[in-house]
Design brief:
heterodimer, A: 418 residues, mainly alpha, Fumarate Reductase Cytochrome B subunit, 71% helix, B: 196 residues, 9 helices
Chain lengths: 418, 196
C-alpha cells in the first residue's frame, strides 16, 4: 500500500482496492448499534400511534382508514395514548441515560463531529446537488466519519430530539397551563416533522441506494470494509490508520465492599419508601410482563382470571414494579459503564459441571424460584429486604426459610458450585 | 415534607412511574456494584466462600431500618402509610424455603438475574426463562391446584413490633447486634472456604 494515500485522497490501484476490500474497520461501537435499532423500534411505534392520535381535522394528515386500522389494533384511543406515552418515556429515559453516562465517551465526541462543519462538508452538499439535480458526473471531496448530508441530518436530530422529549412530557403529564400545552402540541408536531423529513432520506439511503449498502450492514455488525471507509469517509479512515483516535483503555473497577453496598442499598430502599410508600421489588416485573403478553392474546380471560386479574390494574405494564425493572436495567448498564467493565457473553458455573448442565440447572432454578415467589408473594427484594427493614413477620420468615432451603440444597448438591 | 410523598401529596400515577424508574435505576446500580452480576458470587453464600449476599442484605436492612425509624420518630414519615407484604406466615415459609432451593440451583434471585442478564450472562437468561415458566405454571394452575397456597397462615399483625409489642428501634438494635457478632465470624468462614 502506498504511503501517499495516508496523506491525500487519491484514486486507488486495483491491488490496493482488493487489499482494502478484504480488511474490516470498526465504525460503530456496540452501544451505538443498540441505540440505533432501539430508535428504529421507538420511531415506528411512536409515528404510528402519534399519527393516529391526531384527531383535530386541522392537523390530521393521514387517511381515516389508516387511523381506523391503528384504532382496531389498539382497541381504544386510551390504549394508543398509553402506548405512545409509555414508549416515549422509556425512550426519553434511555436517551437521558445515554447522555448522562455516555457524555464523555459517546455523546460529546459525536456532537463535536456533527457540528464541526468543514469546507469539505459544504462541497459535499454542493456535489450531491450537482449529481442528483443536474445529473453531472462528480467526484466527492474526502469526508469525516459522517458526510455532509449525514451531519446535516444529525444536527436536526440532535436539536429536535430534546424538543420532542420536553414537549412530549409537557403534553403527557400536563405540566403547563392548557394554553401552553397547545403550543407544546404544535412544537412537538413540527419537531417530529423536521426529523421525519430527514428520516425519509436516511431510510432511502440505507435501504435502497446501492452505494450505501455497506453502511447499512455496518450499522448491524459495527464493521465496514476499509475500501468503503476509504471511499466514503476518507478522513475517518486516515485517522484510524494513523491510530489517532484510539480510545483510552480504562482500568476496570473492583466491586464495592459489601458493607458500603449494603448501606447504599439501604438508603435507596429508604428513599423508595419515603417518596412512594412502596419498597423495592423485582418478581412483580416478571409477573406483570408475563400477564401483559398473555393479555395481548386473551385480555378478557386474563382480566377475569382469579389470580392474574388481580395484577391487571390499570394496565399490567403501567405499574410501579415494571418501571422499577426498566430502571434496574438502566442502572445496571450505567454501573457497568462507570466501573469500566465490558459487556461480554458468558456462562458462569462451578468447576464440576458443564456449560449445558449449568444452563439446565439455571432453568430449573428459575422455575422453582418463579413458582416460589408466587407462593410467598415476593422475592429477596420485596420480602427479605423491603419487608426485613420494616420488620414484617413474613419478610423475616421468608428470609430465614430462604437460608434454610439454600443451605439444605447446597449441602445435598455440593457439586453444583464447588 | 412528610412522606410517603406520593401518597400524602397525591401525586399522579405517571409521577409514580417516573419515581419507580429512578429508584429502580439506583437499585440496579447498587446490585451491580455489589458484584451481584456474578452467579458465582451470589451462590457463594450457600457454599460458604463468599458472604456478600448476607452482608449486603443485613447492611441494607439495618441502614434502611434506622433511616425509617429516625424519620418516622421525628415525624418526617408516616409509617402506617407504607405498603408492604401482609403477614401470610406459612406461605412465606414455604415460598422462602423453595426459593432458597431454587437460588442454589440457579445461582440467582429475580432482581440479580435481570442485572446479570443485561451484562451478557447466558446462565441468567436461562434463569429468567425459568422464572417465566415457573410463574406461568402458577398462573395457569392457580384455579384448580394452587388456590389459597399464597394465603396460608394469616395473622393480622403486619409488623414484629405489633406482634411482640417491642419498639422498632429495639428490633433494629437486635439486627445490628446480629450484624456486629456474625460479620467477623462469616469473614473467617469465607476465608477458610475460599482457599478450597
Amino acid at each position: 500500500m502506498r504511503n501517499e494515500i495516508l496523506e491525500q485522497y487519491l484514486p486507488l490501484t486495483p491491488e490496493e482496492k482488493e487489499e482494502l476490500k478484504n480488511k474490516k474497520i470498526k465504525k460503530h461501537h456496540v452501544a451505538t448499534v443498540f441505540l440505533h435499532w432501539f430508535n428504529l423500534f421507538v420511531w415506528i411505534t411512536e409515528l404510528i400511534t402519534g399519527a393516529a392520535l391526531i384527531v383535530s381535522i386541522n392537523y390530521r394528515f393521514i387517511p381515516k382508514f389508516l387511523t381506523d386500522i391503528v384504532d382496531g389494533v389498539y382497541g381504544t384511543r386510551a390504549n394508543i395514548i398509553k402506548t405512545h406515552i409509555f414508549v416515549g418515556v422509556i425512550w426519553a429515559f434511555v436517551l437521558i441515560l445515554y447522555a448522562l453516562f455516555g457524555w464523555r465517551r459517546y455523546l460529546k465526541p459525536t456532537l463535536k463531529q456533527i457540528f464541526f462543519i468543514t469546507k469539505d462538508d459544504i462541497d459535499w452538499l454542493k456535489t450531491k446537488f450537482e449529481e442528483v439535480a443536474l445529473n453531472k458526473k462528480v467526484h466527492y471531496p474526502p469526508q469525516d466519519s459522517y458526510n455532509g448530508g449525514q451531519k446535516l441530518f444529525a444536527q436536526v436530530v440532535a436539536i429536535m430530539v430534546p424538543v420532542i422529549i420536553v414537549t412530549g412530557f409537557i403534553m403527557a403529564f400536563h405540566l403547563l397551563p392548557p394554553a401552553l400545552i397547545r403550543w407544546a402540541i404544535i412544537i412537538h408536531f413540527g419537531a417530529v416533522g423536521l426529523v421525519v423529513m430527514g428520516l425519509s432520506v436516511h431510510i432511502y439511503m440505507a435501504l435502497l441506494y446501492p452505494p450505501e449498502q455497506e453502511g447499512f450492514f455496518g450499522m448491524i455488525t459495527g464493521y465496514i470494509s476499509e475500501y468503503f471507509a476509504y471511499h466514503h469517509h476518507y478522513k475517518f479512515w486516515r485517522k484510524k490508520k494513523k491510530g489517532l483516535d484510539a480510545p483510552p483503555e480504562l482500568e476496570p473497577k473492583k466491586d464495592w465492599g459489601p458493607i458500603f453496598a449494603g448501606i447504599f442499598l439501604g438508603v435507596v430502599l429508604f428513599f423508595s419508601y419515603y417518596l412512594t410508600g412502596f419498597g423495592l421489588g423485582a418478581s412483580g416485573f416478571f409477573q406483570r410482563t408475563l400477564i401483559a403478553v398473555l393479555g395481548a392474546f386473551a385480555p378478557e380471560a386474563v382480566k377475569a382470571h382469579p389470580y392474574m386479574g388481580h395484577y391487571w390494574g390499570v394496565y399490567p405494564l403501567w405499574n410501579f414494579l415494571v418501571f422499577m425493572g426498566f430502571g434496574l436495567v438502566g442502572g445496571t448498564l450505567a454501573a457497568m459503564f462507570f466501573a469500566h467493565h465490558k459487556f461480554r457473553f458468558r456462562i458462569e458455573r462451578g468447576k464440576n459441571i458443564t456449560d449445558i448442565q449449568r444452563l439446565v440447572l439455571s432453568v430449573i432454578g428459575g422455575i422453582i424460584v418463579g413458582f416460589a415467589t408466587r407462593i410467598a408473594g415476593g422475592c429477596t427484594s420485596s420480602q427479605a429486604l423491603s419487608g426485613g427493614a420494616v420488620f414484617s413477620p413474613s419478610g423475616w420468615i421468608f428470609m430465614l426459610a430462604l437460608f434454610a432451603g439454600g443451605y439444605l440444597a447446597a449441602f445435598i448438591f455440593r457439586r453444583f458450585w464447588k | 415534607m412528610i412522606g410517603p410523598l406520593y401518597k400524602i401529596l397525591g401525586w399522579s400515577h405517571g409521577t409514580l412511574m417516573l419515581l419507580a424508574l429512578i429508584i429502580g435505576f439506583f437499585f440496579g446500580y447498587a446490585l451491580y456494584r455489589s458484584g451481584f452480576y456474578s452467579s458465582k458470587k451470589l451462590a457463594g453464600v450457600f457454599y460458604l466462600y463468599d458472604f456478600a449476599v448476607y452482608k449486603v442484605i443485613f447492611g441494607g436492612i439495618v441502614s434502611a431500618g434506622l433511616l425509617i425509624w429516625l424519620s418516622s420518630t421525628i415525624g418526617l414519615l408516616k409509617f402506617d402509610m407504607l405498603t408492604f407484604h401482609p403477614s401470610y406466615l406459612l406461605s412465606s415459609l414455604i415460598g422462602g424455603f423453595l426459593f432458597g432451593i431454587g437460588f442454589v440451583f440457579g445461582g440467582f434471585c429475580p432482581g440479580t438475574s435481570l442485572v446479570s442478564a443485561v451484562t451478557g450472562s447466558f446462565d441468567a437468561m436461562a434463569f429468567i426463562l425459568g422464572i417465566y415458566v415457573g410463574i406461568g405454571i402458577w398462573d395457569i394452575g392457580y384455579s384448580w391446584l394452587f388456590k389459597g397456597l399464597n394465603h396460608l397462615g394469616k395473622i393480622k399483625e403486619k409488623t414484629l413490633m405489633e406482634l411482640w409489642n417491642i419498639p422498632y428501634i429495639v428490633l433494629i438494635i437486635i439486627a445490628f447486634v446480629i450484624v456486629v457478632v456474625t460479620f467477623p465470624i462469616v469473614m473467617k468462614v469465607e476465608k477458610k472456604f475460599k482457599d478450597e
